[in-house]
Amino acid sequence: MSDKFRFPAEWEPQSAVLIAWPHPETDWGPRLVDVEETYIALVAAITSFEDAVICIADDDLQTYAEARLRSARVDMSRVRFVTVEYDDTWLRDSGPITLRSNDGSGFRQLDFRFTGWGGKFEASRDDRLVEALTAEGLFPNGERHEIDFALEGGAIETDGAGTLLTTWRCLHERHPQATREQLGAKLAGWLAQDRVLWLERGYLEGDDTDAHIDTLARFAAPDAIVYQACDDIADTHYDELQAMAAELSQLRTREGKPYRLFALPWSRPIFDDGRRLAASYANFLIVNGAVLMPSYGDVADARAQEVMAEAFPGRAIVPVPCRPLIWQNGSLHCITMQVPAGALG
């Protein structure tokens, strides 16, 4: 690990959660009414525990978003707006990956290339988002580091102590000429890690990220992993997610022990015009004192909440309705990016 900076785990203290408000020019346009309800519920949940920083495209959108949030009785003293351009609202992948100095005095906002998940979608404005936020003075205690390498925040997961968890499928898709050793060395260097754990298996239908780790398996503690399981032998995901579970059982902590594993339930298939949607409970967000959990209006929601409570003792588990989000192939974690405590101005 770097002797100057470290990559904090998501459960460490945060200043705020960063999101971008949907508007008609984003991909949410055709179903804006539904997705706005999710965003309102999300901001209400975030501000129950910490601040929310909301990217907005212009003053009119801020006026509108503020009115919607006030009508929902959101604590506006915990809401901050910042005006920037963006193509869409997947800030987990276009937002800053923040490192913290070991002495806590400074921060480094890593600005990787965002290519619209390997060129699948237009992303030129999203690729400039970290630069725009820095120019707006959002990170006065940090320095922006531009890195000419395609990497999304949803593709990586850290335990805050030097171990990175990721998937070979995603990183290989972005960088097909690089070996595992080359990719691991680059990630370890940029992200101040000394171990990279790779998963070979695991995917979700309807996911266009090429198997982001944050839809599959997440650290709950340095010795614990929460993962999306599938117990329906008739489901097309069964073999792949069973194989992923077996892989996870073979991983070892820094001390050489098996990880404590928490299996999340499998929701019934959700379709939209015949298209299977990626409903993963692993796409949760950790905030100060709580875990915000995606809910899908499925009978499995209740069991998912129980598993989260087991994995995160002492934290409130707050369901957020996310069915509208999976229409665009992502969920709760995908539209958010946490900012470590002290990193905001």
UniProtKB/TrEMBL annotation:
Lineage top rank: taxon: Bacteria
SUPFAM superfamilies, A to Z: Pentein
Pfam families according to UniProt: PAD_porph
InterPro entries: Peptidyl-Arg-deiminase_porph
This protein's UniProt keywords: Hydrolase
Annotated protein name in UniProt: Agmatine deiminase family protein
